[in-house]
Amino acid sequence: MKSSPHPAPRSTGRLRPLIATAPFLAALAATVVVYVSVSVRLPDPLATHFGADGRADGFTSPQGFLTGCLAVLLVLGIGFGLPALREPSAGTPWLIAGGFATAAALGYLICLTLLGNAGAPDGAAVRLPMWQMAVALGLAVPAGALGRLLAGPAPRPTEQAEGEAPRLDLPGATAAGWSRTISSPPLVALGVLVCGGGLVSILGGEVLTGVMLLLTGAVAVAVTSVRVTVDRRGLTLAPTLLSAFRIRFRRIAPDRVAEATSRRIDVFAEFGGWGYRVRPERSGLVLRSGDGLVLRLTGGRRFMVTVDDAATAAALLNTYADRARTRQGG
């Protein structure tokens, strides 16, 4: 039985993408203003990382620091803004609140670093006391509260009714297979942007940060195209770009499937975002909202995959599950 969702007011819904990206745009603007105002008084290299005692232990060029900070703020703004373009879910307002908190803390620390370096004869002479981290966290709390307020009320999730559990009429010893590829262009774009941020960071002298961003972006791009296969071995999920290495995300044998059905899956309402998600009593690989395969496992949990032609996959998987139970005498 379906329940009617209670969406946020239309004006709030239309403005949510702008609201989600606004704090990062503000932090970006503040960074540029502060940099321009103190650029002639910055040492080269300037101090960009500090130890527990407040002494500088990491340095980079002023231009590299600015470029890296702007890249990070831009990537984060896109990352928090993209989900707001989709149909709002119960987690969307809290995602926006998290974006406000992140932008406030990060923007404060970036501007503080620039101001702390201004006028210093050498980057090694700059100090940044650790209590400033507490100040950044203190700013993040009211900023997050403001974001939650501006995001508006959270809609109630809609419970989708599952379809019937069909079967394919296959003769006793006949085998069949089904396969589709699923992908997520927004996640690909985000992965490419993260890789770009890594390259910019490396060029700016932040090698460790750049390498971490490159690895994160590369992994994100590699897992955004997945081959979904149903055959006599059950359900198999494998990354398309890593097929030469025979890597699998997951395989579920037919004897573990109590029932397979298909229905529409709302990614944000049911899982809170894209990717491989784990929630109480269910998990899934969800790269978009739409038609999806829903498996009720013998242990009681559900596993979901958003994929086209899910009804055919469900019917074939049910047929193989019936055969497995017959062989086991179930």
Overview of this protein structure:
Helix 1 runs antiparallel to helix 2. The longest helix is centred in the N-terminal third of the chain and has 29 residues, at 10-38. The protein starts with 9 loop residues before the first helix and ends with a helix. A five-stranded mixed β-sheet has the order 7-10-11-9-8, with helices on one face. The chain is elongated and about 85 Å long. The model is unreliable at 1-11 (pLDDT under 50). It has 330 residues and is α+β, with helices and mostly antiparallel strands. It has three domains: 10-151, Butyryl-CoA Dehydrogenase, subunit A, domain 3 (Up-down Bundle); 160-174 and 225-330, PH-domain like, CATH 2.30.29; 185-223. The chain has helices spanning 10-38, 62-85, 92-117, 131-151, 185-203, 207-222, 267-270, 310-327; strands at 46-50, 56-60, 178-183, 225-231, 234-239, 250-252, 257-265, 275-279, 282-286, 290-297, 302-306. It is 48% helix and 19% strand.
